[in-house]
Design brief:
The chain has 125 residues and is an alpha+beta fold. Helix content is 31%, strand content 23%. It is globular and about 50 Å long. The protein starts with a strand and ends with a helix.
């Protein structure tokens, strides 16, 4: 069994997931959420394929959480959102989807020079 959710909102099926995608996430067809959600329209098949590709058996039950929030563990800051988190009994796979968006800055650039204490705390958390 595969459980789908958008953030903390579980849905019953793929169509409900589509209907639950916030409108602002679909402002442009060039956003990565469009091909990402489309790719996972057959979640059981895709979870199996991904498991084979990465060499990890991803056995059901599994949760596919789109826009999975990870709160800051140390320091101050806002939550980070992973585009898709796949959770099984003993495995977690995080997927950061890219379509036309530019790459994020690297960690060294994010820490800044001189290194900011709070950013070091957030990174270490």
């Amino acid at each position: 069994m595969i459980q789908l959710s958008w953030g903390e909102r579980p849905v019953d099926n793929y169509l409900a997931l589509l209907n639950g995608v916030p409108e602002n996430e679909l402002d442009s067809p060039r956003r990565s959420v469009v091909p990402l959600v489309d790719f996972w329209r057959t979640p059981e098949k895709r979870v199996h394929e991904l498991g084979e590709l990465i060499g990890l058996p991803l056995h059901p039950p599994a949760k596919l959480v789109f826009e999975y929030a990870v709160e800051v563990q140390s320091g101050r800051g806002k939550a980070s959102f992973t585009d898709l988190m796949i959770l099984t009994g003993d495995t977690a796979v995080a997927i950061e989807a890219k379509y036309t968006e530019p790459e994020y800055e690297n960690v060294r650039a994010w820490l800044r020079d001189p290194v900011e204490d709070n950013r070091t705390k957030v990174l270490n958390g």
